[in-house]
Amino acid sequence: MVLSSSIIDFGDPSNRWMLVVCVVSARILYQVTLVVYNLYVSPLAKFPGPKLAAASHWYETYYSLLYEGGGRYYLKITEWHEKYGPIIRINPNELHIRDPEYFETIYSQGNDIDKVEWQRFMFSIPSSIGSTVEHDVHRIRKAPLLSFFSKARVQQQAPNIIARLETMFDRLRKEYVGKAKPVNLCDLFSCFAADVITRYSFGKSYDFLGYPDFICPFSTAVAGFKKAGQISIQFPIVPRLLRTIPDQWVSILRPSFAPVASFKKEVFRLIAAEKARKADGSTKDTDQSIFSQLLDSNLPASELESHRLMEEGVAVIGAAIDTTKWSTVVIIFHILQNPIVLERVRQELDKAIPDPSSLPPLTTLEQLPYFMACIEEGIRLSYGGFVRSPRRHPKPLQYQSWTIPARTPICTDAWTMHHDENIFPDSFSFRPERWLNDPKSPSGKSLSRYILAFGKGSRVCLGMQLAYAEMELSLAALFRQFDLQLHETTRKDIDVYSDALGPTPHPDSKGPRVLIRSRSD
Ligand code: HEM
């Protein structure tokens, strides 16, 4: 105290100004040094790309948050690949590669590939598998869930999916079929996907399909959360700080968050019940919920702590709703917009499903080539996660003449892959035919290898089989039983405008809507 008062008198205004000037100058000096380092000294300095992006993160921040409403950096990346070639530096630390033959190297099954630090807090659930950065921790966490979401278990659970479909169709018949009342496909399939995943993972139904007009506050809250996702990517400190605020306070400050807060409480309740059942030895059906599955696994005790399990539960539900909804809606839109496609799908489904009220097993639907081609093509044009998901490899990677330093964040993405015109000519058009007769890429590999919508390698989507089953059953039943007509809906309602932790259409879109008639009308 004596020291500070004897050296500088902060009561003197000129000294206070001097302090401000010193702090600002130090900050400017730091920024200038950083820019010089990024441009000339960094191990990535030699890689091609725009100097502004290499100099500072602020360039990405501007395109991600401000320019044309934000979420538009993916278009810049495409533009730069045209100009600078297949490997570019897209910010001071990260490289992006556009080469359909190289993405399997980036996203390989290798055990020692990490995600990057900003992915940990992106969804505010850092201990869930999708947010786990370290490969070894991720592997341990994912292992016990693999069989729970395996193809065999999904097939076993098909009757539960069909039961949710019946609920959905009953409501459609009562409130929409034959009426001049359009239904918003995003709202409809959000509720459906939410009901399916909660029943599947928690062994419990929450009747999301019962909400008026299919507007479910929980899905709306999750969608709102995702809209703010770019802020979390650009400023990872924000979600970290928000986590320190109790949920009740956040709900008061932002009432739209309340459904997420009460959902988290419900997840804690389920976990407590499962732990109590396990403690008194009465757990019988080990595959009823992901929590019984995890608690019966050989995960260490630290991994079974209630807060960690809550984050895993929320992650599984969160990962399943918007993604499955969006792919299903995109597929419906494109089929409806192409009368020839619609006719062909119907012919195939009518033949395979003679009684519209009785769906065949998934294995039969999967044998319908044109129907499955429509699904694959719709998945291609719905892009899956969309947001970049970089990886860090422990050893240097070689790409053409470039040596990529070890642990450099490196990525490609579904937008880049799915619009590679050499692999998918006329890539913006919906052309199911491209998937018929076991098609190959110019290099002779199966075309489906170039689909990145579910991710690849060790981090591949956990719920892929469930997502396919939901899409196959719901689309087959929908097109078999109903006549749908697009209502004030165009490609503007479907095409990606921005990346808001998922493919997001133009902000003016009111959402894709349809009018529904029964096919027997
Ligand atoms: C059409 C539907 C779906 C699409 C397009 C999709 C897409 C994706 C993508 C791209 C990833 C990888 C993200 C990354 O690399 O960081 C992923 C991971 C994940 N998905 Fe899905 N998903 C879908 C449905 C589901 C469903 C139904 C579930 C329910 C279980 C689910 C659960 C997960 C989980 C838990 C992860 C993290 C996996 C890991 O990190 O190992 N997804 N998904």
The percentage helix is 40-55%
| CATH uppermost class | Mainly Alpha
Assess the beta-strand content as a share of residues: 5-15%
Q: What is the alpha-carbon Rg in Å?
A: 25 Å
Descriptive account of the structure:
By secondary structure, this protein is mainly alpha-helical. The chain has one domain (99-518): Cytochrome p450 (Orthogonal Bundle), CATH 1.10.630.10. It is 51% helix and 7% strand. It is built from 23 helices and 10 strands. It has helices at 2-7, 13-41, 51-55, 58-66, 73-84, 103-106, 118-121, 135-146, 151-156, 158-175, 185-202, 217-227, 229-234, 237-243, 247-253, 258-279, 290-295, 306-337, 339-352, 362-365, 369-380, 414-418, 464-481; strands at residues 87-91, 94-97, 183-184, 397-399, 402-404, 410-411, 482-487, 498-499, 503-504, 513-518. The strands form 4 sheets. The chain has a 3-stranded mixed β-sheet. Strands 3-10-7 form a 3-stranded antiparallel β-sheet. Strand 4 and strand 5 (402-404) form a beta hairpin. The radius of gyration is 25 Å and the shape is globular. The chain binds protoporphyrin IX containing FE. Protoporphyrin IX containing FE (HEM) is lined by residues 129-130, 142, 149, 197, 315-316, 319-320, 323-324, 327, 384-385, 389, 453-455, 459, 461-463, 466-467. GO terms for molecular function: heme binding; iron ion binding; monooxygenase activity; oxidoreductase activity, acting on paired donors, with incorporation or reduction of molecular oxygen. Heme binds at residue 461. Residues 497-521 are annotated as: Disordered. Keywords: Heme, Iron, Metal-binding, Monooxygenase, Oxidoreductase. Pfam families: p450 (PF00067).
